[in-house]
Design brief:
The chain has 261 residues and is of the alpha/beta class. The protein has helices spanning 10-20, 22-28, 36-44, 56-61, 63-72, 81-87, 127-140, 156-162, 177-187, 225-230, 248-260; strands at residues 2-4, 30-34, 49-54, 75-79, 96-101, 106-107, 117-122, 144-148, 171-174, 190-194, 201-202, 212-216, 233-236. Strand 8 (144-148), helix 8 (156-162) and strand 9 (171-174) form a beta-alpha-beta unit. 44% of the residues are buried.
Length: 261
């Protein structure tokens, strides 16, 4: 274990870039995470920990977690509280950070099975929503996710919101929805659009048996109309009261539950 005392240290500068820059994450094939629980979960999930940084205060509080992460990390550094303030992406940091290799659960559509239940996120732009959907998907038993022109899955906010699920849930990133429809037609997998439309079939009454790609749209605009029109079916979540729509992650939660029910 080495000590780093300068905020100008190249390793500290690189970590800070990974926190703020999707371009840097893509270029290096690495990403940054923060928090004792998340770093520990990454190590337990088999994520390659390239560098671990922690403060002496953090070690006193999270000794067991840091010892385990240190045992699998390629390099370990103790840093000052001043450096921790530079590295942090949270309001109140725990003083534990890790630079990781991109996870191996990123896959392609070809790995998805014809009878599986999958969630498709189209143009989702809030990384916290992406993480929340992934967390729910893993908890419910969804077999994988397809990200269509979404925000960066390795964004620190997405990773924190997923509580480790993005380390384990298989996901495929595509830029063109045509790729999804070509695959679903070839494998005879239903494409189900979740829409805010009273004329659509109520999701709790729909036949969601067999393989399903459940499509959730953008936070503000929902699913693109051209996408919805190409789907096997359109479903809607029945709502009471005056609410017109649901948050994207909440809608995804309810829809995934119905798909698996």
């Amino acid at each position: 274990m080495e000590k780093i005392i300068s905020v100008q240290n190249p390793k500290i500068k690189q970590f800070s870039k990974l926190v703020s820059s999707s371009k840097e994450r893509k270029k290096t094939g690495t990403f940054a995470i923060e928090g004792a629980r998340l770093c520990f979960d990454a190590a337990k999930s088999g994520v390659e920990i390239l560098e671990l940084f922690y403060t002496s205060q953090a070690y006193e509080k999270f000794t067991e977690e840091i010892d385990y992460i240190s045992s699998v990390a390629e390099a370990v550094y103790e840093v000052s509280t001043e450096i921790a303030e530079k590295l942090r992406d949270t309001e109140s940091t725990q003083g534990v950070f890790a630079r990781c290799r991109n996870t191996e659960n990123e896959t392609t559509l070809s790995s998805f099975l014809p009878d599986g239940k999958y969630v498709v996120l189209e143009n989702l732009q809030d990384p916290s929503n992406l993480g929340a959907v992934a967390r729910t998907a893993e908890a419910l038993g969804i077999k994988g996710a397809v990200l269509v022109s979404c925000c960066d899955v390795f964004n620190p906010k997405a990773q924190r919101a997923s509580m480790g699920s993005l380390f384990r849930l298989p996901f495929a990133r595509i830029s063109d929805i045509d790729e999804l429809f070509s695959f679903s037609e070839d494998k005879n997998i239903k494409t189900v659009a979740t829409v805010v439309d009273s004329s659509a079939e109520k999701i709790n009454k729909a036949d969601l048996s067999g393989g399903v790609f459940l499509i959730i749209g953008n936070e503000g605009n929902g699913i693109q109309q051209t996408t919805a029109d190409r789907c096997t079916m359109k479903v809607t979540i029945p709502m009471q009261g005056r609410a017109e729509s649901l948050n994207a992650s909440m809608a995804a939660c309810i829809a995934m539950w119905e798909v698996l029910r």
